[in-house]
Amino acid sequence: MDQALVGMCVNERRFVTIPPELAYGAEGVSGVIPPNAVLHFDVLLVDLWNAGDQVQIHTYLKPLACPRATQVSDFVRYHYNGTHNRMKTYDTYVGIGWLIPGMDQGLLGMCVGEKRIITIPPFLAYGEEGDGKDIPGQASLVFDVALLDLHNPKDSISIENKVVPDNCERRSQSGDFLRYHYNGSLLDGTFFDSSYSRNRTFDTYIGQGYVIPGMDEGLLGVCVGERRRIVVPPHLGYGEEGRGKIPGSAVLVFDIHVIDFHNPADPISITSHYRPPDCSVLSKKGDYLKYHYNASLLDGTLLDSTWNLGKTYNIVLGSGQVVLGMDMGLRGMCVGEKRTVVIPPHLGYGEAGVDGEVPGSAVLVFDIELLELVAGLPEGYMFVWNDEVSPNLFEEIDKDGDGSVLLEEFSEYIHAQVASGKGKLAPGFDAELIVKNMFTNQDRDGDGKVTAQEFKLKDQEAQHDEL
Length: 467
Prior knowledge:
Blueprint: H1 2-5, E1 13-18, E2 39-44, E3 56-61, E4 75-80, H2 83-86, E5 90-93, H3 101-106, E6 115-120, E7 141-151, E8 158-163, E9 177-186, E10 191-194, E11 202-205, H4 213-218, E12 227-232, E13 252-262, E14 269-274, E15 288-297, E16 302-305, H5 306-309, E17 313-316, H6 324-329, E18 338-343, E19 364-374, E20 383-385, H7 393-397, E21 404-406, H8 407-420, E22 423-425, H9 431-442, E23 449-451
Antiparallel strand pairs: 1-2, 3-6, 4-5, 4-7, 6-7, 8-12, 9-10, 9-11, 9-13, 12-13, 14-18, 15-16, 15-17, 15-19, 18-19, 20-22, 21-23
Helix pairs in contact: 8-9
Pfam families: EF-hand_5, FKBP_C
Subcellular location: Endoplasmic reticulum
Protein name: peptidylprolyl isomerase
């Protein structure tokens, strides 16, 4: 038998005939093998090893990129043989005695995505006793391994593949509110989430614990428009437990695109690109303005344009007709001036945005050209006299001399004064509504007519009566 087994391969089958002189001879084995018996063996070689054997490694798939290979004390997640059927990886530390010695050796130097066959002799596996269940004693073991993930508990995040815009006026810092798109995957490329699929950015404060620690750190120092890959080890991600589609102890890969960011303390930003030589008359509260604008997001996405519509946008400054940041950005302009106004969301459309038009928490960029300015009236006034007020004002309005003035008479008189340049209505408002309010203020008893007793000039009493 010693001779017959030499040269056999594992899984080889031999039929062996042994004459008695090379077996049990003339004595045989009492009660089992008679004297001078020829023996016949049907042999199948199941396993073989040598005391000098080492772990054997055969790599049959290796990824093109291997930024890092497993080292002693790394934590790895891998599939082997039947683990695929259980849909669960085997997760362990490498090289520090958590595995049988041969597996500890066989996993060292692997790359994520690599596949290898690791053959382990029994004295580096479960030895003479086996594992007491499925593995017999003195068995060599063969593992078909696919490495999915690796990290070291000392790892910090890593940032890769940065694409930074040429114009980066400011980088994000702790306390900023940031809007960004991302694709999230595991180290082996398994996809788990994407903001693109929801067609909405992920919006959050950074550096303050609103996101996992690795993202909190990885989003610091970015520019608007920047793209970067952030690799987050599990102790800075979702830890040993994982979450949802993310398995426990998984390294996470986020490919992000920064859309915009701001700080809640940010004011508006004004950049003047052109001012005409004569720029002495500057816009102020109450002035009526006509201007063109392009409105866009920080990433350049166009939201609206009066140029495209072919008509100006007209407002009374300080009357609440535009968002506060725009009201602030239009002040101090002269006709013909061109400027860019950047408005943070708390001075724009806030967290809600405008459904279907402006995203929530968006920073807005307005490119503005002021075309016309009509000076407004002093605060609190909707009508003023440009000339001296007639001492016989009531009699002039009461043309029929009946001692009372109706709305029609009052309106006709005020419009005549405006047309002649003697009086001025606040620009940008409904003139008829102003006149009606003026009349109502004089009609003390509300009977639809103003008598001489009710009629008083503004400077004759403390109330704000326009006349």
